[in-house]
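Reviewers of the previous submission asked for a worked example of the structure-prediction workflow described in the proposal, so we include one complete record here. The input consisted solely of the amino acid sequence. No template or homolog information was supplied to the procedure at any stage.
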Amino acid sequence: MRKEPDPAVLYPDVAELGSLAAALQAMAADQGLSLSMVASASDPLRHATAPSVVPHREALFVSAWVFERRWRICGSANNGILIEGVTDDLNDVPALVHGWAEGATLQEIDQAADFDLLTGRFEVPDGNSADVIAAQWQYTLKDAQQSDWPEYQALIEAAYAEPKLCKLYPYTSHWALSFSATPYPFTPSFVSIEASRGGGYTIREWSNGPALTRVPTPAEAISIAVNRLPADLGPNDRPTHP
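From that input alone, the workflow returned the following structure tokens.
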């Protein structure tokens, strides 16, 4: 088993200041910024959080990698992870933390980053279900485009192109796509579609349930999903986000 290095050895500059929170605050000051950071009690050299003035945003997490010198930034809100990325330069981080904490838009935060940061979800401050569903679709589409799995991407894009399904909340488990009328709690599953590398789609009633049938194309899989759609299943709200 690979031995975990001492964080003080991997991050001596952070250890010199006592915590990742203190290191970020010092870097922020050098950049003309002020940060309110909270050090992790259990692992102060590798973990820190920053609260936001925006009520629907959760505290931003900054975490150092264990085996190599890198940092992960993750910011969630009431509808899931909105920003997430990895950098090997800690100097990149203070501006992102400051933007999140002070209520900058996601686009403004992204413009301050030198690496991919947006997850695809947009903010839904009022928690409107239809907007949460629309934001989740944007996340799911981006995730599929980055998956390096053409069959899976084709499935997600075909599902989104179907008007009766794109109004439902998409969720995945082990790369199987399912749908719910509401974000939380999920309504009972009526279909789960699993893409296979190299071609083919397996239809189940729920993820990891017994296979009902297998079809060669995403169009056929989506047609089966639509035919299985309960007549009374569907959200009442319409999305307000453009």
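The longest strand covers residues 80-87. We consider this example representative of the routine output the project will generate in years two and three.
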